[in-house]
Design brief:
single chain, mainly alpha, 7 helices, about 75% helix
C-alpha cells in the first residue's frame, strides 16, 4: 500500500498524514490495521441482528478511526450508518453496508 494508491482510491492522505505528524510508515501501518479490523464484520452482524444500540457503538468507533485517517470512501457509508443508528432509524442498511465493504475491499486489494 502506498500513499499514491490511497490517493487514487480517494483517501485524503495529506490530512491523514498531518494527523500522524507526517510519519508515512506510521500512517500506512494505521491504515492497514484499521482496514483489517474485525469491527466491520461485527457491525454488519449487529445490524442484521437488529442490535442497533451496540451497532451504533461499533459504527461510531469505526467512523472516528476512518475520519482520523481520512479514508473518505469508507468513511462516507460508515458515517451514514452511524447517523442512522444514532437516531435509531429503522431502515434497510444493506446498501450502505455493501458500499462500506466495497470501498474497504478496494483499499485492501492494495495492501
Amino acid at each position: 500500500m502506498t500513499i499514491e494508491k490511497l490517493n487514487e482510491l480517494g483517501a485524503d492522505t495529506k490530512t491523514g498524514l498531518a494527523r500522524c505528524a507526517g510519519m508515512e510508515a506510521f500512517y500506512l501501518s494505521l491504515v492497514e490495521k484499521s482496514l483489517r479490523d474485525t469491527k466491520y464484520d461485527e457491525l454488519e452482524g449487529l445490524i442484521n441482528e437488529h442490535k442497533y444500540k451496540e451497532a451504533f457503538e461499533v459504527a461510531h468507533a469505526l467512523k472516528g478511526v476512518l475520519a482520523n485517517l481520512s479514508l473518505t470512501p469508507v468513511l462516507k457509508p460508515v458515517s451514514e450508518i452511524t447517523e442512522g443508528l444514532r437516531n435509531q432509524t429503522e431502515m434497510d442498511y444493506s446498501a450502505l453496508l455493501v458500499q462500506m465493504k466495497e470501498a474497504r475491499n478496494c483499499f485492501l486489494e492494495q495492501a
